[in-house]
Protein backbone atom coordinates (compact mmCIF):
# COMPACT_ATOMS: atom_id res chain seq x y z
CA UNK A 1 0.00 0.00 0.00
CA UNK A 2 3.00 2.37 0.25
CA UNK A 3 3.56 2.65 -3.53
CA UNK A 4 1.77 5.58 -5.12
CA UNK A 5 -0.70 4.72 -7.88
CA UNK A 6 -0.58 6.73 -11.06
CA UNK A 7 -3.44 9.11 -11.73
CA UNK A 8 -4.86 6.90 -14.48
CA UNK A 9 -4.55 3.72 -12.41
CA UNK A 10 -6.36 5.33 -9.49
CA UNK A 11 -9.23 6.43 -11.74
CA UNK A 12 -9.44 2.91 -13.15
CA UNK A 13 -9.40 1.28 -9.71
CA UNK A 14 -12.28 3.43 -8.48
CA UNK A 15 -14.22 2.91 -11.71
CA UNK A 16 -13.84 -0.89 -11.51
CA UNK A 17 -14.69 -1.20 -7.81
CA UNK A 18 -17.70 1.16 -7.74
CA UNK A 19 -21.18 -0.32 -8.16
CA UNK A 20 -24.75 0.94 -8.29
CA UNK A 21 -25.97 1.69 -4.76
CA UNK A 22 -29.54 2.95 -5.31
CA UNK A 23 -32.87 1.45 -6.39
CA UNK A 24 -35.15 2.70 -9.20
CA UNK A 25 -38.41 4.52 -8.61
CA UNK A 26 -41.09 6.01 -10.86
CA UNK A 27 -41.80 9.72 -10.43
CA UNK A 28 -43.66 12.49 -12.23
CA UNK A 29 -41.73 13.96 -15.15
CA UNK A 30 -42.28 17.43 -13.68
CA UNK A 31 -40.14 16.44 -10.67
CA UNK A 32 -37.40 14.66 -12.62
CA UNK A 33 -34.93 17.47 -13.37
CA UNK A 34 -31.50 16.52 -12.00
CA UNK A 35 -32.43 12.86 -11.45
CA UNK A 36 -30.65 9.93 -13.11
CA UNK A 37 -32.64 7.91 -15.65
CA UNK A 38 -32.89 4.21 -14.73
CA UNK A 39 -34.42 2.84 -17.95
CA UNK A 40 -33.91 3.71 -21.60
CA UNK A 41 -36.75 5.80 -23.00
CA UNK A 42 -38.02 4.72 -26.42
CA UNK A 43 -40.33 6.98 -28.42
CA UNK A 44 -43.70 5.36 -29.13
CA UNK A 45 -44.86 8.09 -31.51
CA UNK A 46 -43.37 10.17 -34.31
CA UNK A 47 -42.46 13.78 -33.53
CA UNK A 48 -43.84 15.64 -35.35
CA UNK A 49 -46.69 13.16 -35.92
CA UNK A 50 -47.42 14.53 -39.43
CA UNK A 51 -45.69 16.53 -42.12
CA UNK A 52 -46.21 20.19 -41.20
CA UNK A 53 -45.40 23.62 -42.48
CA UNK A 54 -42.20 25.32 -41.36
CA UNK A 55 -43.66 28.79 -42.02
CA UNK A 56 -46.69 30.79 -43.05
CA UNK A 57 -47.39 30.44 -46.76
CA UNK A 58 -49.18 28.34 -49.35
CA UNK A 59 -49.18 24.57 -49.81
CA UNK A 60 -49.45 23.10 -53.30
CA UNK A 61 -48.23 20.29 -55.56
CA UNK A 62 -44.98 21.03 -57.37
CA UNK A 63 -46.34 19.53 -60.61
CA UNK A 64 -49.18 22.07 -60.61
CA UNK A 65 -46.84 25.05 -60.64
CA UNK A 66 -46.40 27.19 -63.72
CA UNK A 67 -44.80 30.63 -63.85
CA UNK A 68 -47.94 32.33 -65.16
CA UNK A 69 -50.56 30.16 -63.52
CA UNK A 70 -53.22 31.72 -61.32
CA UNK A 71 -54.00 29.67 -58.19
CA UNK A 72 -57.14 29.84 -56.13
CA UNK A 73 -57.09 29.11 -52.39
CA UNK A 74 -59.24 26.04 -51.76
CA UNK A 75 -58.78 25.80 -47.97
CA UNK A 76 -57.24 27.55 -44.98
CA UNK A 77 -55.25 25.40 -42.52
CA UNK A 78 -54.11 26.57 -39.10
CA UNK A 79 -52.01 24.66 -36.54
CA UNK A 80 -54.12 22.10 -34.74
CA UNK A 81 -56.77 21.95 -37.47
CA UNK A 82 -57.18 18.79 -39.61
CA UNK A 83 -56.36 19.32 -43.28
CA UNK A 84 -58.57 18.19 -46.19
CA UNK A 85 -57.16 16.64 -49.33
CA UNK A 86 -55.93 19.38 -51.64
CA UNK A 87 -58.05 19.99 -54.72
CA UNK A 88 -55.75 19.49 -57.73
CA UNK A 89 -54.62 22.72 -59.34
CA UNK A 90 -55.34 24.80 -56.22
CA UNK A 91 -53.29 25.87 -53.21
CA UNK A 92 -54.02 25.95 -49.50
CA UNK A 93 -53.38 28.89 -47.23
CA UNK A 94 -51.26 27.35 -44.45
CA UNK A 95 -49.69 28.55 -41.21
CA UNK A 96 -46.60 27.50 -39.28
CA UNK A 97 -47.08 24.11 -37.61
CA UNK A 98 -50.20 23.20 -39.59
CA UNK A 99 -50.48 19.75 -41.17
CA UNK A 100 -49.64 19.48 -44.85
CA UNK A 101 -52.76 18.37 -46.77
CA UNK A 102 -52.51 15.19 -48.81
CA UNK A 103 -51.83 16.07 -52.43
CA UNK A 104 -49.43 18.89 -51.49
CA UNK A 105 -45.66 18.45 -51.34
CA UNK A 106 -44.25 21.96 -51.03
CA UNK A 107 -44.88 25.22 -49.18
CA UNK A 108 -44.17 28.60 -50.73
CA UNK A 109 -43.49 31.44 -48.35
CA UNK A 110 -46.19 34.10 -48.26
CA UNK A 111 -43.56 36.71 -49.14
CA UNK A 112 -43.06 34.97 -52.51
CA UNK A 113 -46.74 35.04 -53.44
CA UNK A 114 -48.26 37.80 -55.58
CA UNK A 115 -51.97 38.38 -55.11
CA UNK A 116 -53.96 39.29 -58.19
CA UNK A 117 -57.62 39.74 -57.32
CA UNK A 118 -58.77 36.57 -55.61
CA UNK A 119 -55.93 34.53 -57.09
CA UNK A 120 -52.23 34.03 -56.45
CA UNK A 121 -49.21 33.79 -58.71
CA UNK A 122 -45.94 32.22 -57.61
CA UNK A 123 -43.07 33.47 -59.73
CA UNK A 124 -40.34 31.22 -58.34
CA UNK A 125 -40.49 27.50 -59.06
CA UNK A 126 -40.78 25.51 -55.81
CA UNK A 127 -38.93 22.33 -54.98
CA UNK A 128 -40.51 19.23 -53.51
CA UNK A 129 -40.28 19.31 -49.71
CA UNK A 130 -39.55 23.05 -49.50
CA UNK A 131 -40.48 24.49 -46.10
CA UNK A 132 -41.98 21.21 -44.89
CA UNK A 133 -40.98 19.56 -41.63
CA UNK A 134 -41.44 15.84 -42.34
CA UNK A 135 -43.16 13.39 -40.03
CA UNK A 136 -40.64 12.09 -37.47
CA UNK A 137 -38.06 14.77 -38.27
CA UNK A 138 -37.25 15.11 -34.56
CA UNK A 139 -37.95 11.60 -33.31
CA UNK A 140 -38.99 8.33 -34.90
CA UNK A 141 -41.29 5.83 -33.23
CA UNK A 142 -39.11 3.05 -31.81
CA UNK A 143 -36.06 5.31 -31.44
CA UNK A 144 -34.16 5.33 -28.13
CA UNK A 145 -34.15 9.02 -27.25
CA UNK A 146 -32.50 8.98 -23.80
CA UNK A 147 -30.35 6.19 -22.41
CA UNK A 148 -30.23 4.99 -18.82
CA UNK A 149 -27.54 6.77 -16.84
CA UNK A 150 -28.30 10.22 -18.25
CA UNK A 151 -29.06 13.00 -15.81
CA UNK A 152 -32.40 14.53 -16.71
CA UNK A 153 -32.06 18.16 -17.80
CA UNK A 154 -34.75 20.78 -18.48
CA UNK A 155 -34.21 20.09 -22.20
CA UNK A 156 -34.97 16.41 -21.57
CA UNK A 157 -38.17 17.46 -19.79
CA UNK A 158 -39.27 19.31 -22.91
CA UNK A 159 -38.32 16.43 -25.19
CA UNK A 160 -40.18 13.83 -23.11
CA UNK A 161 -43.20 16.10 -22.83
CA UNK A 162 -43.32 16.23 -26.64
CA UNK A 163 -43.73 12.44 -26.53
CA UNK A 164 -46.67 12.73 -24.15
CA UNK A 165 -44.73 11.14 -21.27
CA UNK A 166 -45.85 12.07 -17.75
CA UNK A 167 -43.89 9.62 -15.56
CA UNK A 168 -40.37 8.18 -15.83
CA UNK A 169 -38.24 5.69 -13.93
CA UNK A 170 -35.21 7.21 -12.23
CA UNK A 171 -32.84 6.13 -9.49
CA UNK A 172 -33.46 7.20 -5.92
CA UNK A 173 -31.07 9.93 -4.73
CA UNK A 174 -27.72 8.68 -3.47
CA UNK A 175 -27.40 9.21 0.30
CA UNK A 176 -23.93 10.57 1.04
CA UNK A 177 -22.28 10.83 4.45
CA UNK A 178 -19.58 13.43 5.02
CA UNK A 179 -16.96 13.27 7.77
CA UNK A 180 -14.43 15.99 8.52
CA UNK A 181 -11.59 15.41 10.99
CA UNK A 182 -9.20 17.58 12.96
CA UNK A 183 -8.83 19.07 16.44
CA UNK A 184 -8.13 22.47 14.91
CA UNK A 185 -11.42 22.77 13.02
CA UNK A 186 -14.43 24.60 14.40
CA UNK A 187 -17.69 25.56 12.67
CA UNK A 188 -18.24 29.08 11.38
CA UNK A 189 -20.07 31.29 13.86
CA UNK A 190 -17.81 30.48 16.81
CA UNK A 191 -14.87 32.56 17.98
CA UNK A 192 -11.47 31.32 16.92
CA UNK A 193 -9.08 30.36 19.69
CA UNK A 194 -5.29 30.13 19.24
CA UNK A 195 -4.45 27.26 16.87
CA UNK A 196 -7.98 26.94 15.50
CA UNK A 197 -9.30 27.47 11.98
CA UNK A 198 -12.78 27.38 10.53
CA UNK A 199 -14.01 24.17 8.93
CA UNK A 200 -14.27 24.91 5.19
CA UNK A 201 -14.12 21.37 3.81
CA UNK A 202 -17.38 20.25 5.40
CA UNK A 203 -19.50 23.04 3.88
CA UNK A 204 -17.65 22.79 0.56
CA UNK A 205 -18.18 19.02 0.25
CA UNK A 206 -21.80 19.43 1.30
CA UNK A 207 -22.31 21.96 -1.50
CA UNK A 208 -20.39 19.90 -4.09
CA UNK A 209 -22.40 16.76 -3.32
CA UNK A 210 -25.69 18.65 -3.42
CA UNK A 211 -24.77 20.44 -6.64
CA UNK A 212 -24.08 17.05 -8.25
CA UNK A 213 -27.66 16.01 -7.49
CA UNK A 214 -26.97 13.71 -4.54
CA UNK A 215 -28.41 13.96 -1.03
CA UNK A 216 -26.23 14.68 2.00
CA UNK A 217 -27.63 12.33 4.62
CA UNK A 218 -25.32 13.36 7.49
CA UNK A 219 -22.33 15.67 7.92
CA UNK A 220 -20.24 14.83 11.02
CA UNK A 221 -16.98 16.01 12.53
CA UNK A 222 -14.49 13.97 14.56
CA UNK A 223 -11.54 15.09 16.63
CA UNK A 224 -8.12 13.59 15.98
CA UNK A 225 -8.62 10.33 17.84
CA UNK A 226 -9.20 6.80 16.58
CA UNK A 227 -12.15 6.40 18.96
CA UNK A 228 -14.04 9.45 17.66
CA UNK A 229 -13.20 8.61 14.07
CA UNK A 230 -14.49 5.05 14.47
CA UNK A 231 -17.65 6.17 16.24
CA UNK A 232 -18.43 8.72 13.51
CA UNK A 233 -17.87 6.20 10.73
CA UNK A 234 -20.08 3.61 12.42
CA UNK A 235 -22.85 6.20 12.70
CA UNK A 236 -22.57 7.10 9.01
CA UNK A 237 -22.60 3.43 8.03
CA UNK A 238 -26.10 3.09 9.47
CA UNK A 239 -27.79 5.37 6.95
CA UNK A 240 -25.49 6.26 4.02
CA UNK A 241 -24.89 4.73 0.61
CA UNK A 242 -21.40 6.27 0.26
CA UNK A 243 -19.10 8.03 2.72
CA UNK A 244 -16.64 10.85 1.99
CA UNK A 245 -14.18 12.24 4.50
CA UNK A 246 -11.54 14.95 4.56
CA UNK A 247 -8.36 14.99 6.63
CA UNK A 248 -6.59 12.37 8.70
CA UNK A 249 -5.43 10.26 5.74
CA UNK A 250 -1.71 11.13 5.69
CA UNK A 251 1.13 9.62 7.72
CA UNK A 252 1.18 11.91 10.75
CA UNK A 253 0.74 10.71 14.33
CA UNK A 254 -2.69 12.36 14.44
CA UNK A 255 -3.88 10.87 11.13
CA UNK A 256 -6.18 8.06 12.24
CA UNK A 257 -8.56 7.50 9.33
CA UNK A 258 -6.54 4.84 7.49
CA UNK A 259 -5.96 2.81 10.63
CA UNK A 260 -9.66 2.83 11.51
CA UNK A 261 -10.52 1.83 7.93
CA UNK A 262 -8.19 -1.17 8.12
CA UNK A 263 -9.92 -2.19 11.35
CA UNK A 264 -13.47 -1.82 10.01
CA UNK A 265 -13.10 -2.87 6.38
CA UNK A 266 -10.79 -3.23 3.40
CA UNK A 267 -8.49 -0.53 2.01
CA UNK A 268 -8.16 -0.63 -1.79
CA UNK A 269 -5.73 2.20 -2.45
CA UNK A 270 -3.73 4.80 -0.55
CA UNK A 271 -1.62 7.59 -2.02
CA UNK A 272 -1.90 8.78 -5.61
CA UNK A 273 0.84 10.36 -7.69
CA UNK A 274 -0.92 13.71 -8.16
CA UNK A 275 -0.36 17.26 -6.95
CA UNK A 276 -2.19 18.49 -5.00
CA UNK A 277 -3.96 15.56 -3.37
CA UNK A 278 -1.46 12.72 -2.85
CA UNK A 279 -2.86 11.29 0.42
CA UNK A 280 -6.16 9.79 -0.73
CA UNK A 281 -7.60 6.51 0.55
CA UNK A 282 -10.30 4.33 -0.99
CA UNK A 283 -11.92 1.57 1.06
CA UNK A 284 -15.04 -0.53 1.55
CA UNK A 285 -16.73 -0.68 4.96
CA UNK A 286 -19.50 -3.23 5.42
CA UNK A 287 -20.09 -3.12 1.68
CA UNK A 288 -20.29 0.68 1.63
CA UNK A 289 -17.77 2.64 -0.50
CA UNK A 290 -15.56 5.10 1.35
CA UNK A 291 -13.27 7.77 -0.06
CA UNK A 292 -10.97 9.68 2.27
CA UNK A 293 -9.82 13.00 0.79
CA UNK A 294 -6.85 15.05 2.00
CA UNK A 295 -7.44 17.81 4.54
CA UNK A 296 -5.91 20.78 2.72
CA UNK A 297 -8.81 22.59 1.03
CA UNK A 298 -7.36 22.70 -2.49
CA UNK A 299 -6.36 19.05 -2.23
CA UNK A 300 -9.90 18.27 -1.09
CA UNK A 301 -11.30 20.12 -4.11
CA UNK A 302 -9.01 18.44 -6.65
CA UNK A 303 -9.58 14.93 -5.31
CA UNK A 304 -13.33 15.49 -5.08
CA UNK A 305 -13.43 16.69 -8.69
CA UNK A 306 -11.47 13.74 -10.02
CA UNK A 307 -12.20 10.82 -7.72
CA UNK A 308 -15.20 11.45 -5.45
CA UNK A 309 -17.23 12.79 -8.36
CA UNK A 310 -16.51 9.61 -10.33
CA UNK A 311 -17.34 7.33 -7.40
CA UNK A 312 -20.62 9.13 -6.64
CA UNK A 313 -21.63 9.12 -10.31
CA UNK A 314 -21.27 5.35 -10.67
CA UNK A 315 -22.94 4.63 -7.33
CA UNK A 316 -25.90 6.84 -8.32
CA UNK A 317 -26.40 5.11 -11.68
CA UNK A 318 -24.81 7.76 -13.89
CA UNK A 319 -22.45 7.08 -16.76
CA UNK A 320 -18.81 7.01 -15.66
CA UNK A 321 -17.50 9.86 -17.77
CA UNK A 322 -14.46 12.07 -17.34
CA UNK A 323 -15.06 15.82 -17.42
CA UNK A 324 -14.72 17.58 -20.78
CA UNK A 325 -11.38 19.12 -21.72
CA UNK A 326 -9.70 20.87 -24.61
CA UNK A 327 -6.13 21.76 -25.48
CA UNK A 328 -4.85 25.18 -24.43
CA UNK A 329 -1.39 26.64 -24.97
CA UNK A 330 0.53 27.59 -21.83
CA UNK A 331 1.33 31.25 -21.30
CA UNK A 332 4.23 30.46 -18.98
CA UNK A 333 7.34 28.30 -18.65
CA UNK A 334 8.52 25.94 -15.93
CA UNK A 335 11.66 23.86 -16.31
CA UNK A 336 11.19 21.92 -13.07
CA UNK A 337 9.51 18.55 -13.46
CA UNK A 338 7.81 16.47 -10.77
CA UNK A 339 7.03 12.76 -10.68
CA UNK A 340 3.30 13.33 -10.19
CA UNK A 341 0.46 14.48 -12.44
CA UNK A 342 -0.18 18.11 -11.54
CA UNK A 343 -3.40 20.08 -11.71
CA UNK A 344 -2.47 23.74 -11.91
CA UNK A 345 -5.15 26.34 -11.31
CA UNK A 346 -5.13 28.62 -14.34
CA UNK A 347 -7.11 31.38 -16.00
CA UNK A 348 -7.42 31.94 -19.74
CA UNK A 349 -6.15 35.31 -20.92
CA UNK A 350 -7.56 37.43 -23.73
CA UNK A 351 -4.84 35.98 -25.94
CA UNK A 352 -6.26 32.48 -25.36
CA UNK A 353 -3.24 31.31 -23.36
CA UNK A 354 -3.44 29.62 -19.96
CA UNK A 355 -1.77 31.49 -17.10
CA UNK A 356 -1.03 29.90 -13.74
CA UNK A 357 -2.48 31.59 -10.68
CA UNK A 358 0.45 32.82 -8.58
CA UNK A 359 -0.84 30.91 -5.55
CA UNK A 360 -0.73 27.13 -5.99
CA UNK A 361 -0.62 26.13 -2.30
CA UNK A 362 -2.73 23.09 -1.41
CA UNK A 363 -4.16 25.08 1.48
CA UNK A 364 -5.42 28.03 -0.62
CA UNK A 365 -8.99 28.19 -1.96
CA UNK A 366 -9.02 31.77 -3.23
CA UNK A 367 -6.82 30.70 -6.15
CA UNK A 368 -9.58 28.36 -7.37
CA UNK A 369 -12.15 31.17 -7.10
CA UNK A 370 -9.91 33.40 -9.21
CA UNK A 371 -9.16 30.69 -11.80
CA UNK A 372 -11.23 29.05 -14.51
CA UNK A 373 -10.01 25.48 -14.33
CA UNK A 374 -7.11 23.05 -14.17
CA UNK A 375 -4.19 22.71 -16.55
CA UNK A 376 -3.25 19.02 -16.44
CA UNK A 377 0.52 18.59 -16.61
CA UNK A 378 1.47 14.93 -16.71
CA UNK A 379 4.21 13.50 -14.52
CA UNK A 380 7.82 14.19 -15.55
CA UNK A 381 6.75 16.92 -17.97
CA UNK A 382 8.17 20.42 -18.36
CA UNK A 383 5.87 23.35 -19.02
CA UNK A 384 6.89 25.23 -22.16
CA UNK A 385 5.42 28.51 -23.33
CA UNK A 386 3.15 27.95 -26.33
CA UNK A 387 2.91 24.17 -25.88
CA UNK A 388 -0.50 22.57 -25.55
CA UNK A 389 -1.86 20.93 -22.41
CA UNK A 390 -5.29 19.61 -21.44
CA UNK A 391 -7.47 22.26 -19.82
CA UNK A 392 -10.42 21.21 -17.66
CA UNK A 393 -12.89 24.05 -16.92
CA UNK A 394 -14.36 24.02 -13.41
CA UNK A 395 -17.80 24.22 -15.05
CA UNK A 396 -17.29 20.69 -16.43
CA UNK A 397 -17.05 19.02 -13.04
Automatic annotation (TrEMBL):
Taxonomic path: Bacteria, Pseudomonadati, Pseudomonadota, Gammaproteobacteria, Oceanospirillales
Q: Which domain of life is it from?
A: Bacteria
Classification via PANTHER family: GEPHYRIN, MOLYBDOPTERIN BIOSYNTHESIS PROTEIN
| Protein known as | Molybdopterin molybdenumtransferase
Per its record, the protein catalyses: adenylyl-molybdopterin + molybdate = Mo-molybdopterin + AMP + H(+)
Q: Which residues form the MoaB/Mog domain?
A: 177-314
Cofactors needed by this protein, per the record, are: Mg(2+)
Its top-level enzyme class, in one word, is: transferase
| SMART domains reported in the protein's UniProt record | MoCF_biosynth
Output the InterPro entries linked to this UniProt entry: MoaB/Mog-like_dom_sf, MoaB/Mog_dom, MoeA-like, MoeA_C_domain_IV, MoeA_C_domain_IV_sf, MoeA_linker/N, MoeA_linker/N_sf
What Pfam families does the entry give?
A: MoCF_biosynth (PF00994), MoeA_C (PF03454), MoeA_N (PF03453)
Similarity-based family? Belongs to the MoeA family.
Q: What does this protein do?
A: Catalyzes the insertion of molybdate into adenylated molybdopterin with the concomitant release of AMP.
Q: In which pathway does it act?
A: Cofactor biosynthesis; molybdopterin biosynthesis
Keywords attached to this entry: Magnesium, Metal-binding, Molybdenum, Molybdenum cofactor biosynthesis, Transferase
* Matches recorded under Gene3D superfamilies: MoaB/Mog-like domain, MoeA, C-terminal, domain IV, Molybdopterin biosynthesis moea protein, domain 2, Molybdopterin biosynthesis moea protein, domain 3
List the EC numbers from the record: 2.10.1.1
